[in-house]
Amino acid sequence: MIPTDDPFNTAAAPEKARRLFVYNGGFLTQKRIRRILTLSGYDVSLGKPGPDDMVGVWGQSPTSWRGEAVAGRTSAPVLRVEDAFLRSVLPGRDGEPPLGLHLDTRGVHFDPAQPSDLEVLLTEHPLDDTHLLNQARDGMARLKRLDLSKYNAHDPALPAPAPGFVLIVDQTKGDASVTASRADRNTFLEMLFIAREEHPAAPIYIKTHPETLHGHRDGHYRDEDLGENVYFLTDPVSPHALLDGAIAVYTVSSQLGFEAVLAGHKPVVFGQPFYMGWGLTDDRQPLDRRQRNLTRAQLFAAAMILYPRWYDPYRDRLCSLSDAIDTMEALTRCWREDHRGWVASGMRLWKRRPLQDVFGRHRKVVFEDDPDKADTLAANTGRGRMVWAGKSDGHDSAMRVEDGFLRSRGLGADLIAPLSLVLDDLGIYYDPTAPSRLEALIEASVTLSAADCQRAETLIARITAAGLSKYNLDATDLPDDLPKGRRILVPGQVEDDASIRLGTTDVRTNRDLLIATRTANPAAKIFYKPHPDVEAGLRDGAVPDAANHADVILNKTSPIAALDAVDAVWTMTSTLGFEALLRGKDVTCFGTPFYAGWGLTDDRALPCVRRSAQPNLAQFAHACLIDYPRYHDPVTGLPCPVGVVLDRLEQGTVPRPRRANRLLAKLQGAFASYAHLWR
C-alpha cells in the first residue's frame, strides 16, 4: 500500500493495533521508538507471531537476522524500522531519541536489492498535488533558513572553506547503506581518484561523518589517502554552508547527497541510495528500474512528508513535517547556544532554578556576580557569559537575558518562572540607545517567505482569539457603563522600568503620559489602566490624580478586554502597545519601544535612524515571537516552539503564583534596600 497525502501519514497505519513481534532490545528499552510504533498502530510484543502479526526489525542492523529468521519460519511479514531523515541534534549513539521513523513494509530505503515503500512512492505516486508540493518547497526553504540537517551538532558560525572546492562525503565503516550499495573502502578511494581527475585544479575537502567526529565509528579515509590539495574537513561546519560553496559533491550513499540535491547540486553518486536514479544525480552505478524523472520538490515530498512518521514530544502524537521542524528548531537552538555552558551574573536567587532549566540542559549554568571572577571562570571553563539585562553594568562581554513577550501566567514580581526568555548578543530589545538582536531580526524579516509570514499570521490569530498577553493575569472584565465615543487606552508602566529610563525623553511618567494624551485628544474617552505590578504594590508608578485626566480608571481589569474595547493605544514604551498592534489597533508612542520606528506606529519621539526597514505586521511578529525568544515547556521540561507555550497557557498547565511566592515578593519589595538577603 502506498502512503497517502495525509500529512501525519496516519492513513497508512492499521485501524486496529497490529501485534509487532521484535527480537531487538532497543524496541523495548527506547521509549520514543516504541511510542511512535504504538501511535502508528503497532503493539510491540515478544514471543512467536501468529497469522495476522508482523515481525519488526531495525533496518539491516546486526540483530535484524533474528527477526528475519522468525519471519521466515512463520511467514510473518517484516516491518523494517529506520530513523527518519531529520533525526536529532546529536547522533543516536549519544543517546538522543529520533524525531521520526521510517516504517517500511517492503524493504529499507537504502537497500537497492528490492524496492522499498519509499521507492514505490517515488515510482508510482503522482506527486502532483499543488498543496503537497507547496509544503515541500516550504519545508526545503525552512531547513535551509534554520540550518537544519539530519544531525544538527554543527556550528553555523564556523566558516566553510573558500568557495570553489570539491566536497567528498565520507561515511562510517560498517554503515548499512554502504554495504547495501556493495561499496567498501576501495569505492571511497576510487571516488577520491575520480574527483581529482575531474577537478584537477580545485581543492578537495573530505567531510568527516558526525559519528566519526564524536568517536563512535571510524570513517573510510585515512591520513595517508590525502595528497596535494586534498584535506580533511573535521570542523562541525554547517552542511548548508558547505553545499553553498562547493562546485561538485561526491558521495556513495550519504544523506548529504540528498541534501546536495535539495541545494541545487547534481551530486556524483557511487552507490544506490534512495535519491539516485530520478534524473537529479550523476549516477556511476545506475539502477535500471528507476526511470522516472522527478523534481526536487517531488523527491522531498515523498522522502520527508509522505514516507516518515514524525513525532510531537510535547503533545505525544504523530505530527506533520512542519511541526517536526518546529521541534527540531527549538532543540537545536538550545544545543547551539548552551552546549558550551554559561557563567551567569545578575540573576536573583529565585530565578536561578528556572534559568538552569532553560539554559543548563547540556551543561550546568554557573552563577557568579563579580564581573572579573565571572570572566575568568568563563575563560577557564570554555563557557559563555550571560547577565540579566537590567544588571549588565560592568559585564560588557556578556549576553543579555530578559523575559520574552509571552512570559507566564503571573507576574515576574510574584516570582513566577518565565515560559520565554530572550538571549541577546548585541544589546537588549528595550534599550533603543544601542542595537539589539531583535532589531537585526526585524530588519531581516522583510525577506521572509510567504509561508513564514503565513505562519506568523496564524500565530497572531491564535494569540488574539485566545486572549493571551504577556502575563495572562486573572482579571475582571470591563465595567458595563463605559462612555461612548472614540476610546483611547493609556497603559500605566513601572516608572523606574529600564525601557522608560532608556527609551523616553519628554514624557517619562504615567501622569505626564495621561496629560499628553488628554491634551492631544480633548474629546476622546481616555481609559487608564495601571500596571499590574503597581496595582499589586510591588513597584513605583501610581498616579493619585489619574481621575483628573482620564474618564475611566481600569483597576485590575483584563488588558485584553481593555484592548478589545478601545480604538487606539497611547503609550510610552509599554508592551501593551505591541499587543495592541497584534490586534489591529492604532498605537501612538511617546518613547521608543522595540515596536516603534518600523512604520507600524505613530511615533512622537525622536526617530531611531537605525530602524530603516518597513516590515508588515506578520514579518514583525515573526521576528518578535518566533525568531527572538526561546520557549520552555513546563510539562516536558524541553525547549519548545511558541505553539506549545500557547497550548500550556490556554490549558492552564503553567506555573501559577503560590502563597509563599507572593509573600516572598512582598518581602522583596519591603526590604529592597537589603538586596543581599534575597539575591
Question: What is the compact description of this entry?
Answer:
The chain is α/β, with parallel strands linked by helices and 679 residues long. The chain has 24 helices and 26 strands. It has a seven-stranded mixed sheet with strand order 2-1-3-4-5-12-13, sandwiched between helices.
Describe this entry's structure for a reader.
With 679 residues, this protein is of the alpha/beta class. Helices cover 34% and strands 15% of the residues. It has 24 helices and 26 strands. A seven-stranded mixed beta sheet has the order 2-1-3-4-5-12-13, sandwiched between helices. The protein has a seven-stranded mixed beta sheet with strand order 15-14-16-17-18-25-26, sandwiched between helices. α21 links the parallel β22 (568-571) and β23 (586-589). α5 packs across α11 (296-306), α15 (437-444) packs across α22 and α16 (450-466) packs across α22.
